[in-house]
Amino acid sequence: MKVKIIFVSLVGLLCTGCATLLNRPVTNITLHTSKPTTIVYQSDTLNTEHHDRCTILVNRSPEPVQLSVEQDSLYHSIRIPSKNSLAYYLNIVYTAGLGMLADKDRPERYAYPRQVYFNLAETPLAYSRHGRGNRQNQRYVRVSVPYVNHFKLAPANEPDKINTGFWGISLGLDHYYSPQQYLNLTVGAVTDFDAPFLLPYERVGEHESMFSVYFNVSNNYQISRFHLGYGLSYAINTWNLRYHDRQNAPPPNREPVTKTSHALGAVVPAYVQLGEQLMIGVVYRPTFLRFNTNPTLAYEHLVSLDFVWRVHIN
What we know:
- This protein is mainly beta.
- Helices cover 10% and strands 56% of the residues.
- It has 5 helices and 18 strands.
- It has helices at 2-14, 18-22, 86-89, 91-94, 98-103, and strands spanning 26-33, 38-41, 44-47, 53-59, 65-71, 74-80, 83-84, 110-111, 115-118, 127-128, 139-153, 161-178, 181-193, 205-223, 226-244, 257-273, 278-290, 297-312.
């Protein structure tokens, strides 16, 4: 009986597409304009006087969204085409593609850009998905995976330790205090894990590892889809030497040791926006001033290839 229940449940999940499960039949589009203007959508007349933007609620559909945007006292017709949503493509991973058949004729399959930008100084008038819109007072939560991490640490009474490894996690908050500038607060942790995939494996003999926990505060500029910033970073950097007595490992050369430094330095993030929510970039975190380790002044750094998922929370 249990086998039958599990089988029926699996068939039910495979016959229900990811888009149907994850997407609502309606979605929001935020329209940004370079200056206040009037936009007509269906029977509604909207204005962008509040921070040069407004939001419309649209039904998901294979059909484009039709707008009329006022420019120099004339109204211009704009079509925003639909596309397949990310949830629709998740069927490839989670249902081996079978969910695509279930989602095929469902409106939840489709999506529109969440953010649309109009530069009213341009002729002919068109829209872009990455623009110089007014994001003032907007907030975003970001979750990121610093996937590749290059360490240079200087443990006390040890030669410099340099290694490149994988994996980390961070959580951050972006607050736009002006149309194109925002403050970022981020806390995260990274490692130099040996493998690019999270698979268990056995270490044999002596093994060195590095780990860093950090807190960043940075000021950032967004220009189109590019994000550049600078700020301060506080890091807790740890170097470990461990011995794993497996498979007749050779005897250790020294006792296991852990050395940790608390350090203050800078952070320089640089990202490119790949979509409405996805970003990829490189983050450079040098530290110079240490509080619990001699010498007090020592250069260490962490350079990470970072993958970011950023969600608007206003």
